[in-house]
Write a structure and sequence with these properties.
The chain is α+β, with helices and mostly antiparallel strands and 392 residues long. 32% of the residues lie in helices and 20% in strands. Helix 6 crosses helix 8.
Length: 392
């Protein structure tokens, strides 16, 4: 392990990127060093340092010996933290056939010459354009909506597999999304991914604070699949805005140059945790369906006993509309819930989050996906219902 190849040492090293001085010495590998996987009879020559993170350090390596069917250039990740290495290797093996994930080719442990500290290694797929955060720094242009949507759907397919296995990723950030030479996105870095133990939620004890959902930042003790979805929504917004260095706000999403449907999906991703898509599968269904409600629209012939919510601007004062509804036997509510029967929609409000929809209409979509269909009527239909009741 870590012996220097004579042929590599003759090459000029001025252009080779070396590990920073702040990196622990055991993780510092010199360009030209040979890393040996004795179990699989493979050797890799270190070309340059790529970066460091929670896992440890990453290097670009080329296969020096071993089977020719193995990729020529790969990423070598090294760490001294065994649990992190085990998680990366485990998820890499379990999800090895999922296209939108960075492929993990092999994992092994060794003891570097003269160091005595076990070094845990992972060989994975090399994405030529690096991570998405760096890619957007170099190319800060917003992606076309169709292209962004296509890549997010691929990522959602992969995360759906993760959620179906009972696990959460907890770190779907631009630094853990990698860009191939064809500008395809792949999710990597499973260093803090965890499976749920029985019915217990995964603890929120490890995450990237800057990209964590608001519920986690405010002290929530568990990390749910909905929190992964929040990060995927932020990832989608990063592509559409060209900004990958921070979270995108609800107000910024309103100004994105994309369809109202996409804005609706994004707002549901980053909104209140209890109103967010509960899993990647739910977000994927909404993104692909483009029309969340199923079945024929609910019909209302009378307001008697109906639970009614108002949204948007009406021609009459909201207080007067509430009085008319109550006189007609309705129960007026402030928010859409699983018991709501009818939403009366007025003109578009400047506070609406997704051009055609405000939070209440987004909540109607959420209830429709859960099998609870809510009737939506215009003000004219509401006045007709009230008029019919008043003439009785």
């Amino acid at each position: 392990m870590n012996r220097t190849d004579e042929r590599a040492s003759r090459q000029p090293t001025a252009t080779l990127r070396t590990a920073p001085l702040g990196l622990p010495s055991v993780l510092r590998l010199r360009p030209g060093s040979i890393v040996e996987d004795s179990l699989n009879c493979r050797e890799y020559r270190v070309e340059r340092f790529l970066g460091q993170g929670g896992f440890g350090a990453a290097y670009l390596v080329s296969r020096f010996s071993g089977t020719k069917t193995f990729p020529g250039r790969c990423v070598l990740k090294v760490t001294i933290d065994a649990p992190t290495w085990h998680r990366e290797a485990y998820f890499g093996h379990v999800l090895r056939h999922v296209p939108a994930l960075v492929a993990v080719h092999s994992s092994f442990a060794c003891v570097p010459d003269g160091r005595g500290v076990p070094l845990y290694c992972l060989i994975s797929e090399y994405a030529e354009e690096g991570d998405l955060g760096g890619f957007l720094e170099r190319n800060p242009e917003p992606w076309p909506e169709l292209r962004a949507r296509r890549e997010i759907i691929r990522i959602l397919g992969a995360v759906t597999r993760i959620h179906e296995s009972g696990a959460v990723h907890r770190d779907i950030t631009p630094r853990n999304i990698f860009v191939t030479s064809k500008c395809e996105l792949k999710l990597g870095d499973f260093g803090i991914a965890l499976h749920r133990a029985g019915r217990k939620d995964v603890p929120a004890d490890a995450f990237a604070p800057r990209f964590a959902p608001s519920a986690i930042q405010q002290g929530a003790k568990s990390w749910r699949p909905a929190d992964d979805v929040h990060q995927i929504g932020q990832l989608y917004a990063a592509l559409l805005s060209g900004v990958g260095s921070r979270k995108i706000t609800s107000r910024e999403i309103k100004r994105l140059a994309c369809s109202a449907h996409t804005k609706s999906v994004l707002q549901r991703c980053i909104g209140e945790r209890r109103k967010c898509f509960a899993s990647a599968a739910e977000m994927l269904q909404a993104l692909e369906a483009r029309r969340p409600a199923t079945g024929p629209p609910a019909r209302v012939r009378s307001l008697e006993g109906k639970r009614v919510v108002f949204t948007g601007g009406l021609s009459l004062r909201r207080a007067d509309a509430r009085k008319l509804a109550r006189r007609a036997g309705a129960i007026v509510e402030d928010r859409v819930s699983q018991t709501t029967d009818l939403v009366v929609v007025g003109d578009q409000s400047p506070h609406w989050k997704a051009e055609e929809k405000g939070q209440k209409l987004l909540d109607v979509d959420r209830e429709a996906e859960r099998g609870h269909r809510i009737a939506i009527v215009k003000e004219s239909r509401f006045l007709a219902l009230v008029g019919n009741k008043r003439r009785r």
